[in-house]
Amino acid sequence: MDFGLFDTWNAVYEGDKVPWDPEYSGGKLLQTEAYEANFAQIDAIESAGWDYVWLGGGHFSTQASMDPQCLMLAGILAERTKNIKIGTSIHRPLMKLPGEELRSTALPHERYAFDNLMLDDPFQIAEQVSIVDQVSEGRFIYGAGARSRGSDERREYFFEFLEVMKQLWSEDHFSGFEGKYYNYPAFYEPYLSIPKPYQKPYPAMLLPVDSQESFVPMGTHGYRIAIGAGSSPHNLRGHSVLREDVKSYRKAWKDAGHPGDPTTVVRVPTLVAETRAEATRHTEKLMELARAYYAGRQGIGSTDAGAASPDTTEEVNLFGTPEEVIEKIHMFREAFTTDEIMFEINWTSSVPREVCMNTIKCISEKVIPAFK
């Protein structure tokens, strides 16, 4: 079984209080210190032999995340590390259907990006992914999503975006693409090409499931999936329903004739301490801050696929001692046929850094060895 860190390159504030903390007194965002603290976490899991780091984030929401460019950050970490695999969870290409309007639940930073930024092009993203994969010498996993919840058309649009990139990576000479949403002529000179990935024909791809309707299409297309151990905050379907959804995904994979056995990556809020009393003290404070975070006191929150709301996190989490966390991981493994846990050790960016580092230490020394 493999284990990875989910990291949105979390912010650091002067006075060590985040803006949604009732004790926050106006401490400014410390950008250089945030990079230092996040690099320290990467160095810790690299030296401890973790399997993956997963990079999340988004544009214009620096209250909690300092990662608006996860492909660029992945390239930097590829140069800094030697062994750990690096994935994006997720890269969100900006896509817009003709006449499309953003859903009413979109957060302000999502709306600004949707209304004002240029659309992403599959050619340029394919080039960037190839470079990261080469720099990492094949340690890169491309995780991507397009906020397709509730829209079959948008999901189809996103899958076509991925098909263009896969064709660019796979062909020595691009033969052209004719689709419903993208149309490109063949390269008309022999020297025209894009950089190719280190992995052949292209890096492994991981897609987050953002709605119940997505499980079967993901399996049909043969994509590896990431889920939240509970439910996403705007789709409270429950643990038992999610288990059935995973079964549907696995059946669709097999029915489509894809080789191998489909598995899922499970992302889950995590806080581990040596004693039950210490774990309880830290998690009670975390839950208090997380509820303030999701209440939108600072105009923030999360609509990411796999993001856990406070209500679902109270029910499904990896909070506790190493022994308790090991037992819960066994449960996840059985329920979701998972071969990897994505530890979200700074859920809602509300966990003190010393607590994050201690969670890494407990996982490295006591949890991971139980499965290796």
Could you explain how this protein is built, in words?
- This protein has 372 residues and is an alpha/beta fold.
- It has a single domain, classed as Luciferase-like domain (TIM Barrel, Alpha-Beta Barrel).
- It contains 11 helices and 11 strands.
- It has helices at 31-48, 70-80, 108-116, 122-135, 152-170, 215-221, 239-255, 276-294, 310-315, 322-336, 353-367, and strands at residues 2-7, 52-55, 85-88, 140-143, 177-178, 183-184, 204-208, 224-228, 264-272, 318-320, 338-344.
- The strands form 2 sheets. Strands 1-2-3-4-7-8-9-11 form an 8-stranded parallel barrel, surrounded by 7 helices.
- Strand 8, helix 7 and strand 9 (264-272) form a beta-alpha-beta unit.
- Residues 231-237 have low confidence and may be disordered.
